[in-house]
């Protein structure tokens, strides 16, 4: 069984009561934050190695590293083969900083996108722009309703009720 499948079964399918789930995810988020603090501190030196080597480097279990790799994969310049990944699979954490910040905002991971290390990576204006872009991406804009006596949007020059709105 591939590591990712094992991770997903553990994280999402294992029967846990509320306390166990809270404990599991709190532990994961603390480890995740520690890894991000390390990789954001040295942005010009992308980290790479096998899954096992990275787990050892960051002091986490292989399955926790797998969860981290699953989470960061959409923010990497070259995504890792996470679906088929095993302990000896070579992976890279060469991330696109704008995409990573944007995705963190999208996941509502304030403990990650508010890390002090971002001050050295992106200007405050860039972070605000990415934050706003992400928040607006989920906003549904409702089209203005056409009134019966408004000009028809088809360009005929007739009132909407006498043109395209006749059968509406």
Automatic annotation (TrEMBL):
Gene3D superfamilies: 3.10.450.50. It holds the Pfam family SEC-C. InterPro entries: SEC_C_motif. NCBIfam families: PRK05590.1 (NF004088). This is SEC-C metal-binding domain-containing protein. It comes from Lachnospira intestinalis.
